[in-house]
Amino acid sequence: MAKYKTLIIALSTIGVAVIVYFIVKLVITPEAPDEQEKVTCGAKVVYRYRFPSRAFPVVANSYDAEIKFTSDILKRITDSAGSLDIGVNVKNTLVELQEKLDQDNISFSTGLRNYFFSVNSDPCNDTLRMRYVLFTEEMSRRMIEFRNVTEEIATVTETATDATGVVPSADTATTVPPYKLVRDTTRLKQSILKLNEVVEKNRAINNKIVTRKLRP
Predict the structure, then answer these.
(1) With b meaning 16 or more CB within 10 Å and e meaning fewer, what string describes 89-112?
(2) Is the dihedral of CA 194, 148, 6, 152 positive or negative?
């Protein structure tokens, strides 16, 4: 079982790394010539988007999807808290965690947006471009950590039913894949506390990278 768990985590890591590779590639090389234009920077040529406001949602989509999935899991656990023996302290942590996750997502998404548009408006700035790459690497790390925690307590299913067999609403089904929660309260408690540690670490990092000056 441990072997399979390690394999799943490894595959998830590779999957997220591939996503980030293509995110960075979107800013460096043209995928659609009509969407991007060449910019000559000395001896090299780089590209920038003609319509960055249309391109940004593509860049942010994977991160937003991961956050929505994590947030939806927390909401579903909260809704089921009355029937789960996870303890008062963990239930309180769960409520606070949802708020912190939302705040963290807003702060980080704002930083990602600022870097994306700054790089696009100043494509010859190598320092700025490198900071954007480092920012997307940080995004990759967060996605991996969120996924490692959520995979401990939720299993994506082919049919849109939760652990109690209730079909999610249409709005939820369009943004979050159908999944089932585990009923092991020990695993739920451990995962909630672990996720809280992840979010606290991310918030500390936000204070450094989101408030950093974009231009050298």
Answers:
(1) ebbebbeebbebbeebbebbbebb
(2) positive
- Alpha-carbon dihedral angle through residues 75, 16, 121, 209, given to the nearest 10 degrees: 60
Does 215 fall in a domain?
A: no
Q: What is the pTM of this model?
A: 0.69
Give a yes or no: residue 214 inside a domain. no
Tell me if 165 is assigned to some domain: yes
**Distance in angstroms (rounded) separating the CA atoms of residues 169 and 155:** 18
- Rounded Cα distance, 92 and 85, in Å: 13
164 within a domain of the structure (yes/no): yes
User: Which tens digits make up the pLDDT trace of 101-114?
Assistant: 888 888 888 888 88
The closest alpha carbon to 101, from 71, 64, 141, 146, belongs to: 71
Beta bridge partners of 46: 39
40: left (phi over 0), alpha (psi -120 to 50) or beta: beta
Residues 166-216 pLDDT 10s: 444 434 444 678 888 887 888 888 888 889 888 888 887 776 665 555 545
Helix (H, G, I), strand (E, B) or coil at 138: helix
Joined together, the tokens standing for residue 10 give: 């490894």
Q: Provide the residue range defining the domain that includes 167.
A: 2-209
Using CA atoms, how far apart are residues 205 and 193, in angstroms rounded to an integer?
A: 19
Structural domain count of the chain: 1
Tell me the sheet residues that pair with 181: 154
b (16+ CB within 10 A) / e for 23-54 = bbebbeebeeeeebeeeeeeeeebbbbeebee
